[in-house]
Amino acid sequence: MRNLRLAACAAALAIACFSGSALAQKYPNKPVRMLVPFAPGGGTDIMARIIAQKMSEALGQSVIVDNRAGGGGTIGAETAARAAPDGYTLIMVSGSYGTNAALYKLPYDPVRDIQAIALLGETGFVVALHPTVPIKNIKEMIAYNKANPGKLNYASTGTGGITHLATELFDLMAGTKMTHIPYKGTGPALNDLLGGQVQLIFGSTPATLPHVKSGRLRGIAVTTGKRIAPLPDVATVGETVPGYNAVLWYGLWGPKGLPKDIVNLWNTEVAKILQTDEMKKRLAGDALEGGGGPPDQFLNILKRDVEKWKKVVKEAKITVSN
């Protein structure tokens, strides 16, 4: 009897191993949808399109970017969280995803109800102003704000998004008050900033940097702990407001229950993409430090940010309606 049980267990284990191996071999056999919870043109969208193209080549199947904007990124995230855990619906998110738990009563848990796949990279924001605004640095911006509270308006990717909270963190630490104008993503926000409808933005580096370099926007600071290579003469916010730091990351996740084989496949292939000379050069040009570590690395960063932004939301008394 004991021998029969051992034989049965061995057979079950062999079947499980074969099934996992077969899954890895068969996947994907149709296009994969990569959700982006913001409008086209922002940093998350840019990163998603780069990875989607490279992963299409690696997998031999199309990876299609699907923009689902709204709710500060919660609409796209809920769609991904509720998708079948078969590897055919994944989502590219940015640091804004870490702010949602601090702000919304979500129908899903942003940490426990997902399967982390990979951290793509980390960067910061560029404090960028329309050229007509008579401010050249953070010290002048603080002085202007204190003399004219509420007069300076800033764009964000949406109420409760990371660009909103990064700017509110600045207001809290600098003792200033600016007027918030929310948009549905970095793309629309930058369009209105370029047109002069709003005056400044704490914009994601990949999306904002080209406009600063072209002279269409004036970059006066970066939110990272140290200056960035593409803008070596632009100071950090922390040089004027000690302790200020706001990091923007990009990460990839799928629904809870995603098979380990699929998680490992994507994690491995994304890491390979990030290590190519072409990608390293591109990331460096956008002041992005490449990720590529194990799934838990991304999950731990997410947990850290949820706690950080909860404090900002509480202190700034930010509320939104679900």
Q: Can you describe this structure?
A:
This protein is of the alpha/beta class and 322 residues long. The chain is built from eleven helices and eleven strands. The chain has helices at 2-26, 43-59, 74-81, 96-103, 138-147, 162-174, 186-195, 205-214, 260-274, 277-285, 295-316; strands at 32-36, 63-67, 89-94, 114-123, 125-129, 153-156, 179-182, 200-204, 218-222, 248-255, 289-290. It has a six-stranded mixed sheet, with helices on both faces. The chain has a five-stranded mixed sheet with strand order 7-6-8-5-9. Helix 2 (43-59) links the parallel strand 1 (32-36) and strand 2 (63-67). Helix 4 packs across helix 11. The longest helix has 25 residues, at 2-26. The radius of gyration is 21 Å and the shape is globular. The model is unreliable at 1-24 (pLDDT under 50).
Brief account:
This protein is of the alpha/beta class and 322 residues long.
Summarize this structure as a short list of keywords or feature phrases:
alpha/beta, 6-stranded mixed sheet, 5-stranded mixed sheet, globular, disordered N terminus
Helical proportion, percent range: 40-55%
Q: Terminal Cα separation, in Å?
A: 59 Å
Shape: globular
Strand sequence of the main sheet, in spatial order?
2-1-3-10-4-11
